[in-house]
Amino acid sequence: MLILNFFPFQTLETERLLLRQITTGDVNEVLSLRGNPETMKFIPRPLAKSREDALQHIEMIEEKITNNTGINWAITIKGNQKMIGIIGHYRIQFENYRAEIGYILLPEFQGKGIITEAIKTVVAFGFDQMRLHSIEAVIDPKNTASETVLLKNGFVKEAHILENEFYDGKFWDTAIYSLLKRNFNV
After folding, report:
1. Which of 26, 85, 112, 172 is the most exposed place for a label (fewest CB within 10 A)?
2. CA–CA separation, 18 vs 12, rounded Å?
């Protein structure tokens, strides 16, 4: 079975990005991300409505890191510590050596290749440091931007599940994309 240890927390770098630990100092940015109907339109979770909601989200992220059950990074542009997004392995199936990757980015930074760049590094961390066998992404099938990013990073579509999630009075479809370690090309 997979055994993880996220201490000390590892900061990751790409050509343009610094992926660092999320702190309570990021509360306003977390609120901007999780409270924005545009960034949350494909994520069937309640909107953050207050700084307290954002702080609870940060606490949940920190708790997963402390318990070695998930890891998320603040996405920042090198030279600017302001968080513009979140990415990480937030759901881990230890017995299957598999993790679910998730990401969210402020609208003004979308379409610039930032998530594509961040995924490459977070996937490499998953395979090299965490020793995962596979990584999955579970998305809303209507989220074509997320599908495009996943395909660019070598993920393949595994399934389209009809109305398998109930949220906010309606049923949602989900699509599952995955990448096996043996198919990962840096």
Report:
1. 112
2. 6
- Grouping H, G, I as helix, E, B as strand and the rest as coil, residue 124 is helix
- C-alpha to C-alpha distances, 51 to 6, 76, 165, nearest whole angstrom: 27, 20, 27
End-to-end CA distance of the chain, in Å?
A: 26
The C-alpha atoms of residue 59 and residue 22 are separated, in whole angstroms, by 10
pLDDT at 186 over 70: no
The pLDDT tens digits of the residues spanning 87-112 come to 999 999 999 999 999 999 999 999 99
What's the chain's length in residues?
A: 186
Kindly state the tokens that stand for 79: 């030279």
As a whole number, the mean pLDDT across the chain is 97
- Residue 163 pLDDT > 80: yes
pTM: 0.96
Residue type, 54: A
Whether a cis peptide bond, with omega within 30° of 0, leads into 141 is no
